[in-house]
Amino acid sequence: MEATTTTTRLNTSISTTPISPAINTNFSYEYLPAYTLALVGTSCSLSILGAVSIALTYFLLPEIRNFPRKLLLYLTFADLLNACGNLMGTIRYVLSKSGDKYGDNLRTSTYNINKSEVCIIQSCITTFSSLASFFWTVIIAVYIFTAVVYSSRVFKGAKAECFYHILSWGIPGTITITAVALKVLGEDHSMVTSSWCWIRSDLEPPVMTSIWMVLAGKGWEIMCYLTTMSLYCLLKLMLWKRRTVSFRSLNNEFREEDNNFMWVWFVLYLLRIWGTVRFVLSLTPVSTNSEDVGLTQLVLLNLQGIGDSSQAFWNFVIFCLCDKTVRKGITARCRNRSELTPLLSPVDGTQTTFA
Asked: Could you list the residue ranges that cross the membrane (predicted)?
């Protein structure tokens, strides 16, 4: 019994195999626990459903369509791509490790795609979508701040929207293409990710791994944290000075429920901060001889796996479940559909048959 317990602990523990001396390689994992993979898979699935729901409500409910909601739709598309990429990475991880750790019939002859190629493709998707998500989040914050505080229309309109698209898709696309061309995307052994691939942990010189993690994600992520937090805190201060709590009282373009945008930055923090903490810890010479350090890392890894994959789901909670207009609109359409059902039957009571 003791031998079995020890083996399990080694299989799910932090690996000490040297990978890149530029970062703390003690935080890499040989095998991730099965419950970690289940949590990531569930979060990705919920995010995909949440993203689809946000898009459907936008197209089905004309009463909620305004410019901020359109920007949210673009953010949702980026988050949808990110969830799909993380789910793809998790499936790849399970299939690639099935013959070693998870051992049942998951490895099949149909899984003949080169694992590194799948890893690189998945890294492209998640790198591009994560960066795009950060840019759209900042753009939404900038737009709401200028529209509410200054009633400015400079950041609205076809030209502004075109600029937003160039910025939010163009810069992430350029960074991702450059990373692919320089062959820096690939397996990172879960050092600063969960069950998906990102920046290769064996780059030479070793410091390039840390540099590319900053350029392809963490630097932009921290910028997003600081920018959105500053703008929304300033916006809250302005609303307090003007003795109001509603965006609509200062700009008729907004709906009452658009105040929910004030929660976007806070949700982003709660979901993404765990990966940032792991990244910072990977740059520090922390020993993993202590069981407390190993347990802390495992907790952070699980929180990151859930948070990085579930942003679209929590946006669905904020902008659909917590939006009174959306709730009423969906309820009314469901009620109208049920009321129209009897009208679809033949008037004379006969049943229509088909030869």
From this structure: 34-59, 71-95, 131-150, 162-182, 220-240, 261-281
Q: Which CATH class is domain 19-327?
A: mainly alpha
Please report, for residues 11, 29, 212, 320, the alpha-carbon distance to residue 8 in angstroms, rounded to integers and kept in the order given. 5, 13, 34, 42
Domain limits, the chain: 19-327
DSSP state of 11: H
81 Cβ contact partners less than 8 Å away, ≥ 6 residues apart? 125, 128, 129, 132
Q: 84-111: per-residue pLDDT in tens?
A: 999 999 999 888 776 544 444 444 434 4
d(CA 262, CA 319): 11
Could you tell me the pTM of the whole model?
0.83
CB atoms within 10 A of CB 335: 10
Read off the pLDDT of residues 43-67 as tens digits, 9 standing for 90 and up. 999 999 999 999 999 999 999 999 9
- Region of 303 (left: φ > 0; alpha: ψ -120 to 50; beta: rest) is alpha
- Alpha-carbon dihedral of residues 339, 318, 69, 164, nearest 10 degrees? -150
Contacts of 46 (CB under 8 A, 6+ apart): 310, 313
Concatenate the DSSP letters of all residues of 269-292 into one string: HHHHHHHHHHHHHHTS-----SHH
Tokens of 115: 């694992």
Q: Is the bond preceding residue 205 a cis peptide, omega within 30 degrees?
A: yes
SS3 10: helix
